[in-house]
Amino acid sequence: MTDFGDFASTEDEEIELDEFAEPWEKYDRKVTPSVFYPICLGEILNERYLIEHKLGSGSFSTVWMAFDLKENKDVAVKVLRTGDCGGIEIRIQDEIVQSVTAKYELLTRPSKKTIHDVELWKPGELVRPIQVPESLRTEDFYLADFSLAMKVGDPVAQPGDPSLCFCSPERLHGEAPSFACDMWSYMVNFVELYQGGRPFHDGYIGGVLTTITARLGPLPEQWKGSYIYDDCLDSWYDQNRTPDKNNTLASGLARYRPDADLAERELVLSIMQKVYLYSSEERLTATQLLADPSFKPSWIGMVVDPVIWSCDLINFALYSRVSGLAH
């Protein structure tokens, strides 16, 4: 049975189970000193939270849907693994609260104007009721985060397992976190939302670098010997190797988005090629991508709103520095 309570009835679903469920060794102190807490559905934590369903897991915690017996409402409960990650989590939350407070003190209170005809308004009613477009209504909810992240200026990145499908190649060869590896991870998200599938997969021999090199060509020869895992393949660094013509970024776009015309797919491909570069120095920065003409048109038939993505990218440029191990 999967983490989400669904039974795996086919071989394909069993493969997906391996992707979504935490490995057993993450609960075994003989394998790792920092283990997850083994939780069962129906268990009550802290004499208050009735565990009802699993929402997800990451490198440092599991997240559960629970019923708060004290407040009589549904809540999400994040259970951290053993070790020092709990202290790190509290420190980060304290810094977030402090940051919000500091901005409030700097910007001061928002301007207010008294409405004298108070009988026109119901208690708590906005001056103008919000009209939510029907196209934005959905019954689907998603829990997401940046996985492993670090604050700009922190000298050392937190340890943890990378989300390989989103990880830039240089991070898998021991290079330090940078804004450039964020851009690689960002473009993976961009492409997945546009075409409905990830551009790189880790289900092959050698993992994600096997598909990256198949689509982009061989890795820099000087990287050979610095791969951080044990399943390294010499073929990744073979400079005589050429990309698989039947398995390119362009062919992926055509396979996933046959509804999009050729001009639109070529526009998306041009954006991908400006970020999917092995040399982190040559990748577009967030600021450069925002200013790039190819990122600005209103693409006909596109399912991802460029305005929304531009706002997300501005957040990348101004606020965040994801470690490059994350999504």
UniProtKB/TrEMBL annotation:
<dbReference type="GO" id="GO:0005524">
    <property type="term" value="F:ATP binding"/>
</dbReference>
<keyword id="KW-0808">Transferase</keyword>
<dbReference type="InterPro" id="IPR051175">
    <property type="entry name" value="CLK_kinases"/>
</dbReference>
<keyword id="KW-0418">Kinase</keyword>
<keyword id="KW-0547">Nucleotide-binding</keyword>
<dbReference type="InterPro" id="IPR011009">
    <property type="entry name" value="Kinase-like_dom_sf"/>
</dbReference>
<dbReference type="GO" id="GO:0004674">
    <property type="term" value="F:protein serine/threonine kinase activity"/>
</dbReference>
<keyword id="KW-0067">ATP-binding</keyword>
<feature type="binding site">
    <location>
        <position position="78"/>
    </location>
    <ligand>
        <name>ATP</name>
    </ligand>
</feature>
<dbReference type="InterPro" id="IPR017441">
    <property type="entry name" value="Protein_kinase_ATP_BS"/>
</dbReference>
<feature type="domain" description="Protein kinase">
    <location>
        <begin position="1"/>
        <end position="295"/>
    </location>
</feature>
<protein>
    <recommendedName>
        <fullName>Protein kinase domain-containing protein</fullName>
    </recommendedName>
</protein>
<dbReference type="InterPro" id="IPR000719">
    <property type="entry name" value="Prot_kinase_dom"/>
</dbReference>
<keyword id="KW-0723">Serine/threonine-protein kinase</keyword>
